[in-house]
Amino acid sequence: MSRKVTYIILMLLMPLLMSANSSSAPDLQDTLREVTVVNQRLAAIEESRSSSVNHIYMRQIEQEQRINYKDLSGMIPNLYVPDYGSRMTSTIYMRGLGARIDNPVLGMYIDGVGIANKNSYDFDLFDIRSIRVARGPQGTLFGRNTIGGIMTIQTISPLDWQGIRATAGYGNYNNGEGKVSVYKKIDRKAEWGIAGSAYYRHTDGYFTNQYDGKRVDPSDEAGVRLRVDGRNEKGYQNSTFLSYNFLQQGGFPYHKPGEGINHNDTCAYRRHNLIFGSSYTFPAGDFKLSGTTSYQYLNDDMRMDQDYMPLPYFTLEQAQQEHYVSQELTLRPKSAYKTKQSGLAWDWLTGMQLSYKHQSMLAPVHFMQTGIDSLILKNANNGIHTAFPEAEMVLQEDNFVIGSRFTTQALDVAAYHTSFLNIGNWQIEAGVRLDFEYQHFRYLSDGTVHYMVKNTPITDWREIESKVEGVVRLPYFEALPKLAATYISPKRSWRAYASIAEGYKAGGFNTQLFSDILQNQMMSDMMQDMGVSFAEGGEYTVSEVITYKPERCLTFEAGISGNYKKDDLRLEGAVTAYELEVFNQQLTTYPKRGTGRLMTNAGHSRSAGAEVTGSIGWKGLSFSAAYGYTYAYFVNYDNGRQDYSGNRVPYMPENTVSGSLQYRFEFDHKVFRALTLNVNTNVYGRIFWDEENEYVQPMYALLNANIILQMKYVSLELWGKNLTQTKYDVFRFVSMGNTFLQSGKPLTFGGKIKVEI
User: In this predicted structure, what is the pLDDT of residue 356?
Assistant: First the structure.
């Protein structure tokens, strides 16, 4: 961002400052804490006492510069979202669960709407009122891809706060941001409100490509959001929003160990994301009928120099368009059924959900001269030499494209029920979800080359047109039960619970492997055209690798939590222990040769661990901490070449630690209101980078700090991240026999001005 842009943002803020009247400005961060949830499934999770839950509120999110959900890593015990690749790479690890591509283990809901594609997870967190993470399987109410839990994000409602918020910030690496939001009630009697927000963020990037001297990962992001809320005294509630996000960035700053980033082709990611969602509740006699309707559109395009080297091997593009519609209906009583004699109270929730997804994808792989020589001709000539030792195959093309086109249609139909039975100080929770999913996958991969073979009769150019196409249908049915018991103390100052629940992560299709499959098909077609048996066949056939199975998880969990308040002293704490039995765990692997990635299933893995959270507050001093430990290993995993049973599951840290220390000085002054000092840290490790457990990232810590001066209408902030300039790796993998890694972000710092009227 240039200086001119920064000046423009500051000038835009000046009218807001000048328009402030003499009345006292509300402190939004202090006044908005309780959240009204329209979506009844999310309300049921709020009322349940049988999950490990973390709440993060606006003050902490904004003070600690938590820009996106990756910045929540470690704040939630055993949650790890590494920041590597691009904003498309929204990999989530939770309690020993997680895979680098395709379906997530943590569901995300924004203002009651479930986000359909994890490519849309990584967005700017602005005007977030609260974030709530319920750990452990939530499949009974929320279905697939919630085996690690769900994250619910609530933005500010215009019914709860009215005014103007604006922010402008700048930092090193030319990090700049500008945000503005307006909240207003349009009908106070019937309580209707409207809100509009917009933001822009830019960075020059943190890593330099030695090949051309340019930054690898510049980024520009912008978005708008419109929200309309309404409610009345009869029990009607509605919350409707429309959001649009645009992102254009570089990415994938991978390099060999001990070397710098050095690749010759473009690495970039572009995304258009539109989300419409409406949640509503109607009174229906003695019941409440609720629903959520949503439509989501994703259009993104990823381009990658997939060999990550300065030689002309090959590049990959993955462009997709996805349309997703969902309808949910829920019925529950207005109040729990109670009996006077026994003291029983029964509350329940019954619902259904219907969703449909249509996705079109283009994934061409562009082979260039070095890639043709080393990946295609070398293997083909090895086959020819079994019959003609002096022969040498050559291609007329010095580059060509393997085209891949995929169409995926997915229909999901589900019905669910959960009951809450309160008996004295006990709450018994029981529920089940019946989920049917049908996926229809159409694929076509093709390519054309011209070849001849020297020192043989084949001295003229001959055309080979190879094609792999077909249709795969993947139906499956899941039953997801949950049973839990919770004891709540008479004064409701502590609770203890135990639960058993089952969840699953959807299966799918290995789209990123089709360039390898067609390479093998091309070589086979050439050999067949010459009448030669191909000695070195492919590692796999289409039928063997085109699909991967759903991942299933059975979780046993127990925990205790409590709080204590007296005068200015506030204490909260929780301890949780769990064990997960995971079947058909989904793992991302790279073939020994080739260009693609393969999702495969391990037979059986197990994860056991503990989580501890705590906070203390006394007057202006507050301290919070979270610790998670995970021991995840393969009980049974033999891929036919090697037995990994007993080895640790890769990419998941053994330990996550976070701590935040803050002191707030209050001032009795006409202009200056408060000064807040905050120091926080996150610790991760060890992390195993492969199934062999050969490479390990040792434990490392990141230190961050910020200082905020709060005035009547304006706040000034200085912040810094990775203040100790810790050197660490966030990703490591092997491709084409070469090891690559991505280093963590360096020291970053900056300042911002915030206006709240």
Answer: 97
As given in the structure block, the two tokens for residue 334 are 């207005």
Confidence check: pLDDT of 3 > 90: no
SS3 assignment, position 136: coil
Q: What is the three-class DSSP state of 62?
A: helix
Nearest CA to 270 out of 222, 212, 329, 227 is that of: 222
Cα(614)–Cα(620) distance, integer angstroms? 17
Task: Evaluate whether 505 touches 551 at the Cβ level (below 8 Å).
Answer: yes
* 22/311 Cα distance (integer angstroms): 65
The C-alpha atoms of residue 349 and residue 288 are separated, in whole angstroms, by 10
Task: Give SS3 for 376.
Answer: helix
Q: How far out from the chain centre does Cα 610 lie?
A: 23
Mean pLDDT for the stretch of residues 387-394: 83
DSSP string, 195-234: EEEEEEEEE--S-B-TTTS-BS--EEEEEEEEEEEEE-TT
SS3 465: strand
Taking alpha carbons only, the member of 121, 153, 145, 117 closest to residue 42 is: 153
What is the reported pLDDT for 578? 96
Query: The tokens 């059975």 sit on which residue?
Result: 554
Q: Residue 158 — pLDDT band, cuts 50, 70, 90?
A: very high
Tokens of 326: 């969902």
What is the DSSP secondary-structure string of 490-542?
Answer: TTSSEEEEEEEEEEEE--EE-GGGHHHHHHHHHHHHHHHHHT---SS--S--H
Residue ranges in 552-709 assigned as alpha helix (H):
none
Evaluated on CA atoms 301, 306, 308, 312, the torsion sign reads negative
**Residue from 53, 24, 21, 1 nearest 218 by CA:** 1
pLDDT digits (tens, 9 = 90+) for 36-83: 677 888 888 777 778 888 999 998 898 888 888 899 999 999 999 999
Instruction: Write out the CATH class of domain 3-756.
Output: mainly beta
Q: Which amino acid is at 479?
A: A
Residues 6+ apart with CB under 8 A from 1: 170, 174, 175, 176, 202
Domain ranges of the chain: 3-756
For residues 437 and 189, which has the higher predicted lDDT (pLDDT)?
Answer: 437
- Provide the 10 A C-beta neighbour count for residue 273: 21
Pair 628, 611: CB distance under 8 Å: yes
| b/e sequence 167-180, b meaning 16+ C-beta within 10 Å | bbbbbebbbbbbbb
pLDDT digits (tens, 9 = 90+) for 301-350: 999 998 999 999 989 999 999 999 999 999 999 888 887 666 789 999 99
Rounded (5°) CA angle 102-293-193: 120
**What count of other Cβ atoms lies within 10 Å of the Cβ of residue 319?**
15
Other C-beta atoms lying within 10 Å of the C-beta of residue 450: 14
The three-class DSSP label of residue 29 is helix
Tokens coding 74: 């470690």
Is 642 a residue whose pLDDT tops 80? yes
DSSP H helical segments within 385-489, as ranges? none
For 135, the 3-state DSSP assignment is strand
Query: How many CA atoms does the CB half-sphere of 529 hold within 13 Å?
Result: 21
Say if residues 580 and 608 touch (Cβ distance below 8 Å). Answer: yes
Are 109 and 150 within 8 A, CB to CB? Answer: yes
The pLDDT of residue 335 is 85
CB 364: neighbour CB atoms within 10 A?
17
- Residues 688 and 650: beta-carbon distance below 8 Å: yes
